Structure formats: C-alpha cells, structure tokens
Amino acid sequence: MSSDVLASADAQARDAAPRAAEPGRSAAPRRRPTAILDAALRGVRRALPPLVVLVVVLLAWQAITRWGDVPRYLVPSPTDVASAARDNAPDLLTSLLTTTREAVTAFVVSGALGILGAIGLASSRTIERSVYPYAIVLQTIPVVATAPLIVIWFGASITSVVVIAAIMGFFPVLSSTLTGLRATDHRLTDLFALYDAGRWQTMWRLRIPAALPYVVSGLRVSSTLAVVGAIVGEYIAGIGNGEAGLGFAITQSAIRLETPYLFAAGIAASILGIAFFQLVNGLSRLLLGSWHESEMRVER
Amino acid sequence: MSTPVRTAPPVSATAADPDAAVVALDGVGKTFANGTAALADVQLEVAPGELVSFVGPSGCGKSTVFRLIAGLADPTRGTVSVMGTSPQRARRDGSVAYVFQDPTLLPWASVRDNVALPLRLRGDGRRERAAAADRALELVGLDGHERDLPRQLSGGMRMRVSIARALVSRPRLLLMDEPFGALDEITRQALQGELLRIWRQADDMTVLFVTHNVFEAVYLSTRIAVMAPRPGRIAAALTVAEPYPREAAFRTSPQFSAAVAEVGAALHASALPAGASAPATEADRVQ
What we know:
Chain A is mainly α and about 300 residues long. Chain A is about 85% helix and about 0% strand.
C-alpha cells in the first residue's frame, strides 16, 4: 500500500468538514448587520401567513357577530372576549396560574413515574410480562370514571386535580419509553455484551440514551394531556374560592352564561397548552439536537 | 503503539505454553434452534501474530464462526478455545476485540468517548481512558477529531473510530467481521494499508478477518480459510507467502494474481458437488 493513497484519502476526509463550514463562518463577520436584518426578515416572512389568517378570521368573526344578529351569550365578538378578559384580569390570571401549577406538577410527576416505571419494566422480561398488562387495563378505564374516586380519596383539593392530570399523562410516557428501551440497536447490544457490560451499565450507557427520542415523544403527548387533565380535574373536583383554576372558571361562566369570559378562559387554556408543548420541544432540542435526526437541521 | 505490558492469560492447563494457538476450533458444529446447520466440523488453529481471512459466499457461516470465537454464542458440538481458555473468559480482560461490519458507534457520544467505551465499561479512570483513547485515535490517524460526533465524520472515518475502539484495550486477538465491506474502493484500500501497519506495529496481535472480497483477503492475509456453505465448513486453508510490508505494487504483481486465482479455484471447488463444472454466476458472485 503506498502512503500517497492513504494521504489523499485522509486529506479528502479532513477537508470535507471545514470546507462545508466555511461559507457561513466567513460570511457572518463581513456583513453582520445585514445578516441580522435578513434573519429578522425571514422570521417575519415565516410568521406573516398565519398572522394574516388570524387577522382575517378575527375580522370575519367580529363582522358576523356585529351585523349578523348573533346573541352575545351564544357567540361573543372578539372585542367582547377581550373586554371580558380585561375586566376580570385578576381572576383570569389567578386561574391561569393555578392551572399552570397543577399541570406542571402533574407533568413532572407523570414524566418521572412513566420513565422510572418503563425502566423498571424493561429491566426484566418477567416483570414486564406480569405487570404491563395491568398498566394497559388501567389506561383503558376512563379518567372521568376514576376521577370522582380520587376526589373522594384526596378531597376537593389541588392534590386531586394533580393526581387526575398525572394519571392522564402517565401512560404515554410509560409506553413510549418502554418501546424505546426495547428498540436498542442489537449490534450495540452485542458490542456491550462483548465487553461484558453489566445489566445496569447497558441500561444506563446504552438503552436509556438510545431511548431518549422515544421518551421525548412520550413527554410531548403527556405535556398537552397534563393541561387537559388539570382542566378536567378542576371540572370534577370543583374547587372554588381562591383556588379556582381555568376549568372551574369555565364551568362557572358556563352556568352563568358569561360566554365572553368562558371564551377568554378557553383561550388562556389553549395558550397554556401551546406554551407547554413548546417547552417540551425546547427540551427535545436540548437533549437530541446534537445527534438525533428528528432534531437536526439539515442544510439544503 | 508502545510495547504493551500483557498480563498472563487466565490460568488453565493448556495456556502455559506461549506458542499455544490463540484460537483453536476443534470439531465445532453449530445448529440453530430452528434446525439450520450453520457450521459442521470446523477445524482450525491460529498461531499468535497471524492474520487469517475467512472468505466464502453469503451464508457459509463466517459470522457464526466469529460469534463463537467472541463468545457471543456457544457451539452445539466440539470446543472453541481462545488463548487456552473459553471465549467468555478470554475476552474478560479486554484481550479480545471485535470490529463489526458497521461502525456501531454511540451517536450521542463524542469520538473520544466512543473509543474509550470498552475502558469505561470495565471501570478505568477518566484520565486513563482519555489518554488511551487519544493514543488509539492517533494510531488510526484521527487525532484532532476527539470531540466530534460520529455524524460529523465520513464513513471511512467512522470505521477508523470503530477500529480505534477495538484497539484501545490493546487486544491480543482482533476479530473483524467484514469491516470494510460498505466503504468505497479508495477508502477501503487506505484502511487495508492502515490495518497492516497497525497489525505489524502491535506486538504479536492476531487478526481474524471476514470478507467476501478475494482480493482483500489475498492482500491482507498470512493465511486464508476458504469456507463453503450448507453446512458451513472450512473447505481449504491457503497460505499467502508474500512477505510484509506489502506495497501497493503487490496488488498488480503476478504473485497476487496467482494467489487470487488459487483462492478462486478453491471457492469454486468448495461450492460444487464433486465432478460438476463451475457455473459462471457463482464465480462472479464470489469474486
């Protein structure tokens, strides 16, 4: 084997990376102000189409409710909703904070239990085979059926709401993580076996990191379910007074036919859900950004 | 690689002799649970410092032989002994390493962490690991890439990382299962050269190499085991007499062509029932 063949192959391989990175790196300092402007323009351009749709829908909605003779208690106009939100801002904010607290707690609890449960199930086939069917059975019982029982056990309290929301968010994390832990590349498992890795070494150094994309997708589902679960829990627990969450605000305003406020609370709930979802997306980017296909930005 | 200090192989009645075979297969057979006879009566002894290639068509049990030697599977007949003991015990102190067909790197770990994995799994300290990993990376010409992630590397570079990982524990036996099969020809030839250099530098390292490329086998090996399918067996073992270092000129020499022809003939003979003439398609596929 001649060394020049070696050298050229090496040179090719080594050159490839810097050359690819060069244009962006050298271009940035030279035209920095324009680059920032470009980025801002690109952001506006991306945000513009959905914004236009939003404005059009709001205007149409406003027009229909104003001139279409629709009663306010059936469909309030956007301005009605806005003024209802403004007039009851302190209440709305308290409700939003309460529901946020419940949803965050439920999400953390369901995420932790789901991940730990999956690791427990995946560490032994026997445990998995004997316990997992019951996890599925539990999942098929509607929360609406178990919720009153939980309220009996934990009282009409925030605890009940958190438990209900956590039950809703638990299963997606459990099943998705378990799938991930089972889907480890068998060649890597062979490699670990060859180096006599212990069961926990294989779990900790191979199976858990390899399952992270699955964990994240489970968390993504459970993040939205935690918000839904918190609101459903509030419906059922029916806590009022200073502890009222968005779910309670929605039921109350429905009873009183305060439709504009109902809309405002509903929109607040949906904003909370979106924020949650984005939070998990950020987490996903943090965990997988450097190595997993789902989070890699491919340049074309 | 500096001269490695090698611990004595695990105590065993037959391991006392340093010239004892590194790998000894004695009447080895393997029948899978579904009844498929993957291997039948395989007989082979490999001496320290040899580079033995296994060639043969797909399904001739090359990979199964390797799994037995690595201790990832057990034979259903006969005995497999590695460095005078069982494969499972031989590999315990890191003296057996394996390079797979794919680089099989952890995508989330840096090149250095990937290379240091065998040391981490056996509990070496952080500084020790980093030093050994960097030395192995230098050996395969990847110094400067310690912090890269696998996806930032080309296919050939990933395979180098995989080789560095195998070398990091200073193995006495290196098992390579079609390591260069997925690479382009230039990269493949470069890595063949590197492998020979590393093998010659390492003191008495034995390499077993699976390939279905006859040219690759002839270029690399001291000996070639020609395997035949249904059931898998070693049909012939041929010695390649050419001395090392083998230059690029060897690839175009008459000796090279002669060796290739010899291996090719052995492959044909083994693939056929006695007396029949070789079908052209089979020959094309093998070569």
